[in-house]
Each structure stands twice: as C-alpha cells, then as structure tokens.
Amino acid sequence: MVRPCGLLTRRKEPVPLKSISVTVSIREFVAGVSATLNYENKERAPVEAFFVFPMDEDSAVYSFEAVIDGKIIAAELQDKMKAHTSYENAISQGHQTFLLEEDMSSRDVFCCNVGNLYPGSKVALTLKYVQELPLESDGALRFVLPAVLNPRYHLSRWPANTCLQLSVITTISSQHGIEKVQSNCRLTPLEYLENDKTTAQISLDDGHKFDRDVQLLIYYSEVHIPSVAVEMGKLKTSPDCFMEEPTTMVSFYPNIPEAQPPITCGEFIFLMDRSGSMQCPMSKQDKSQLRIDAAKETLILLLKSLPVGCYFNVFGFGSSYESLFQDSVRYTQHTMEEAMKRINHMKADLGGTEILTPLNAIYGSPTIPGHPLQLFVFTDGEVTDTFSVIREVRSNSKRHRCFSFGIGEGASTSLIKGIARATGGTSEFINGKDRMQSKALLALKRSLQPVVEDFSLSWSLPVGLSAKVLSPEQSVIFRGQRLIIYAQLIGPMPPKEARGEVCLKYILQGESFENKVAFSLHPNPDTNFTIHRLAAKSLLQMKDMGFRETPANDKKEVLKISLECGVISSHTAFIAINKDLNKPVQGPLVRRDIPRPILLGAHATMPRYYGCVFGDNHLVQLISLQKADGSWDLNEGLALVLGLSVEDILAALPYKNLDSSGWATVLAVLWLHVYGKELQCEWDLLARKAMAWIHINVGCAMHQLMKAAVSLLKSTVDPKTITH
C-alpha cells in the first residue's frame, strides 16, 4: 500500500507546489541534504494543510523551518507531548504554527501540520537531514532524492502534468578520488574542483520532469580502503552532553573473496507481497514489467538456483496469506514442479499489506536441524505498524537471517532496512530500471556464502584518551557489505599533531584477517555536526521502538539523545509558532491532531497492463525447464529455445549411447553463456549447479560434448571458460 504525499489540505487536496531547490553535500559515505519546497495557496479561502514527507529510514532530520510570506519561522525540537500542547495553544490564540513529527507507525515518514494558510499565502518549507549512503553490489554509493516531493502518488484531483521547477546541486568530496557519477536523469558534466579529483560538483540538467526518483551512483577510485572521520564536539558547557564529545565514524569495506563451493544446506522461505499495488508496473516507463510478473520470474530463478538437499516454502501475503506447502519441504524435482505450477498462477489478489500474521506462522513452525532459516521478503509498500513487525523479527533474530527487498518508489525504508538490520541480513531497493531478479539472486548468493565472524575492533590512542563505541553490535558481515561504527573519544584531546589508529580483526573460513587505519585526531570542524547526528541516529535506531512500544527505561535515553542532538525521534517533534500573526481563526475550531494519511490499498483504481512474463522470454523459458538437480531433459521445449529440432539435436550428439540429458544440459549451459551473458548474475548459481551435475554424470565426455555444442550452436565462446 502507498500513501499520498506532499502538502495537502484536510480534504487531501493538494496545495500547488511551485518549485524545489535541493543542495546535496556528499563527503565519503555520508550525504547532507537541504531541500526547500515552495508552495502557494491559490484558493479564495484559508486552508489548513499538512505536509507528508517520506525519506530514507537512515536519515537524521535535524532542522525544519517555514518561510510564510517572507516571515521565517524556525522550529524547536521538544518532547512530543509538550509540542502538541504548544501547538493547540498557539492555534487557539490565533497564531500561525506548524508541527513536524515522525509518523506514529514508521520512522521513515514525517507529517507536518502547517496551520492555516491564508488566500494567496506563499510557503517555503526547508528540511535538512544527513544520512549514510548505501553501497551497490559494484561498490557504487547510491543517493536518492524522492520524487514524492512532486508528489509521487497523484490523487484524483491532482493535476497530472504539473509544471515544476527543480534544481539539484551536488558537491562530492572523497580522499579516495572520484571516478565517475551516473544517474537515471540527465546531468551537467562532472566538474572537478581539485586537480587530484577529490572534489567535484554536478547538477541536474535543466528541463528535468520530476516524475521519478532522482538517483545518483557515485564511484570512488579505491572504495575498499578503510577510513576514519573525526568530528570535534561543541564547546563544553555541561557534563555528559552527547554533542560536546569528539565523535568518530569508522568505515570498513573488506574485499572478501567468493568462496567455492557455496553452502548447500538451509531452509529458504520466500515471503512475497501479493497486495493490489503489485499489479502496477515496475517503473513509469512504457511497457515496464508488472511488479507481480517480475516477482514470479524472480521466484522461479530463486527456486532453480537453490542447492540440492535444502528445504523451501513460498508465502504470499496481503490482507490474508497463503503458503505453497503447509510446512517447508525438501527441495526435489517433485516439490519444485509443484511450486512452479502454483507460482505461474499467482496473482496480486490478496488485498492490503499485512505481514505480521504470516511472519508469526513462519516463526511458529519447528526448526529443521542442520538447516538454518533464511527468509527473503519482497514488498512494494508499507505495513500498518512497522515497529511491531521489526520487534517480532528481532525477537526471532537468533534463529534466522532476513534478506529484504523494497519494490518500487513507495516501499517503506523503515520496514525493509529494519527487518534486515534486526537479523544481520541485507536490504535492497528496486527502483526504475533495476531488475528484481538480479538483486534477489545476489542476496541468495550471499546467503550461500560463509560470513565474516568473530570480528573485533581495537584502538591505539594517546595516553588518557579512550574510545566508547556507540554503534550496536553486529554479528556478521557479508561479502560486499560495509561496516560503519560510531564511537566517542573520551578524555583530554592531545596536541594537534597527534594521531590514532584503529584495527579491525576478523575470521573468514578459519583464516584470520586484519585491517588497520591511522587517522588525525584534529580534523577541521563541521558546523552541521554531521557525524554526531548520524551517531545519534544509530543509537536511536537501536533504542527507539516507536512512541507506543519503546520501553520506559529506554524512553528517557531516547529523549535525552534526541533533544541534545536535535535529531527527531518518535518521542520528539519540531514546533514553531509565528506570534506576529494575530488574525482570528477562520471557522470553528477542531482538534488539530496530525492525521495519518490515507492508504491506497487493493481497492484503489489501478492501471491495467497486458502481457505475460512467461511468454516470449527464451531465457526464462530455458530456466523454467531446468530440473531440481541442475540438469535439462531433451524435449520440444528445449529445442524451441535453442532454435533447433529435437531430431537435429540428437543427430549432432557425438556419443550415440550417451544419455540425452547430459547432451541437453551441456547445450543449455552453453546457450546461457552465448545468449544470456548480460544477465549472468541471475543465472550464475543455477549454471554452477548444472556444471556440478555434468561433472558427476557426464565425466570425461564433457569436453567432447562441449566442443560439439559450440559447433552446433555456431558459438564463439571458448569451452574452457565454461568447464573450468
């Protein structure tokens, strides 16, 4: 389910958005963002408006202000209950006011009541936040500016082709050196500001239509080099103040090699969103694949890539849930065929998005000895109570890992990241042209790989100085995963030339490794206190379990950290009052609680698209024909994909007494390398399973068969690249 967003009236009607101005500062792995949205009330009557703004769950919002008809109204962060009382009092006295708070059920959506907007009033809302940037599988940093500012989900009365001015200026700096910047939007040429390519600037090209998220992929030269950033605190005025202690951000990105062979045990459960919105296309581009079709194709790829001997099950959820099997079943040809049959008939027909009930069913099932649970969750929306879901997943974190996927631009980052973080898994977001299949298979590969374990952090600091680690303990690191740790430096700071060192030690497959990095203890100060605020956000993510759910003993600490650092939490809110405006309130007074925005569920009108994912796609057809043990049978379906007849294929078999399955499997693997090369990341695991079958069942005849296959398919692929 998705929600309407932007600046709306009480009747969910939009207040026209005229322009957006965004400045982004990216330093190493962190982005600082200032976004200003300019609105105008063109109605003849005053309106009470509220602002709904979703952003990444890792974002630390630390500043919010409004400029109404030229008057700046700066906000103050307060205890939420006190802020609500202040808001009510200000409204009743005729003051213009606004209140910004986290949504009650999710920390990645913010709601702001802007009070009363008078006819002709112009409002500029400026929101500032900082966030860690996630890493892509190729090492790129990803920054996303949500198109919801436009807003992203159009209401029935919203003009579909609103003319909007958007400016985005991004400055990037990194000691690693900046290689390139890519985007899904047109950009101005990258301009280097230093000869060593450590600083650069780039802007969104003029004429951009803000009809999709703006995504930037930033590539650094040596991303695996560990780094430490130290930020000095504010001048000391009181004991035990979070913002007054120097704070560090340590970043490790180990270059972990891929292990061979992969793990072959496990219980793999795939939990798939089948709510009505899954009938929407993956992106706004013409002929984009439907989300439900991409999900079905992804499920087939995952099933074909599972190791022989594991256990599996598939759940579909919406307002209710269904499972393919009552309990997880052993992965065999029979169970795989049964699953395939039912997946092909799967539809987006289960209503809303309620995930807690199927999760309870999964966790309530008995464990399978020797087969650790690996849970894969796919959803395109949000749930009604994110905090409850995360708490349930966390309470079962010792028995499983969760790999989560947010589909499309409406997925809840709070849910997707929260459930992965709670179990030591990984999270991915699939937007625009991203392929769900590629990201899901990457996660499956990670789940089949050994992880970095038993890691420890040690510090070498001048006498009298110590490090107090603030980040929650992490149990594992996957291949391709980055580790960020925040720590406070306690004690007197040494002379300016002093340096420190931090060392990360870990064990991978029984072998010990260590990464060391030295750093200056006296860097240039940051007036925005970016690292302090991100460290505070890290603590809040661990302690703050929602306004209703946070334990009493943690609430006191959450309030203290939030108020000291100016970072919003579920227990605090920004309140601002314009006492210069004393016009009488128009109309009868009503309670000004921040409304939870309406959710567009299965009954919302969805555009209809046609086409089946399993039609003309030969790659999907070939994969769907593979057997559970990794082999293929020689039949009409395979012949159709190869573009040959069964008779011609049999005639080219060099060993007439050889079982035709061996010949068919060799041809299928070669076809993948010839015609599916661009999507190798998606079929790599199932091809490895096929090659393992070939080695066992074909043996020394493999090389002759591969040579004959190359001739039959008229391929230029070197057989040695496949067989080794």
From TrEMBL:
InterPro entries: VIT, VWF_A, vWFA_dom_sf. It comes from the Eukaryota. Residues 267-451 form the VWFA domain. Residues 1-131 form the VIT domain. Gene3D superfamilies: von Willebrand factor, type A domain. PANTHER family: VON WILLEBRAND FACTOR A DOMAIN-CONTAINING PROTEIN 5A (PTHR45737). This is von Willebrand factor A domain-containing protein 5A. The lineage of its organism: Eukaryota, Metazoa, Chordata, Craniata, Vertebrata.
